[in-house]
Amino acid sequence: MASGKPQEISEEKQFDERTLHIDRVARVVRGGRRFRFRALVVVGDHKGKVGIGIAKGADVTSAVNKANDVAKKNMISVAMYKDTLPHEVEAKVGGAFILIKPASAGTGLIAGGVVRSILEVAGISNALSKSLGSSNKTNVAYSTIEALNALTPAKNWVTYKNRKITKSKEVKA
Predict the structure, then answer these.
(1) Is residue 173 a part of any domain in this protein?
(2) 161 belongs to a structural domain
(3) In angstroms, what CA-CA distances link 35 with 30, 32, 57, 60, 152?
(4) What's the pLDDT tens digit per position in 93-131?
(5) Distances in Å between the alpha carbon of 159 and those of 74, 115, 168?
(6) What does the pLDDT look like over 56-88, one tens digit per residue?
(7) Model's pTM, two decimal places?
(8) Does residue 63 sit within a domain?
């Protein structure tokens, strides 16, 4: 039983878990209101893997633990180039519109709140971002994940040297 504890501790230290937002939500019933807590959590390994999760619980700790489990199940791998992104990317979820651009070395993360936390946990250390539209933290988080998921690695780009040169017949009109 003692051998099970160190594995759990090392597994938890493998990921950086950050709580982005906690809400108190109410459900109205006949006797009044029932309060629960909703937690938005981001989990990452600083090596290009990141995931977000949202969950509700009777108290804050149970909501955060459930959200951590959801985030670990929904992890994505981010295409990175050195310590930044391979190209500019944008995404829209709900009313939140996110624009993320690569930056040169030494620039740091120029991003606000939720976007900054997600990029830090993913391991991106040089990037510029702008959040347009809604400031809803949940939608901004999902939009950031969608943007990071839309990145294509530089090796998959279709460039002149990667393109097969074929002669196409021109049709004369």
Answers:
(1) no
(2) no
(3) 14, 10, 9, 11, 43
(4) 999 999 999 999 999 999 999 999 999 999 999 999 999
(5) 32, 30, 18
(6) 999 999 999 999 999 999 999 999 888 899 999
(7) 0.81
(8) yes
* Domains contained in the chain, number: 2
One-letter identity of residue 143: S
Q: How far apart are CA 130 and CA 111, in angstroms?
A: 7
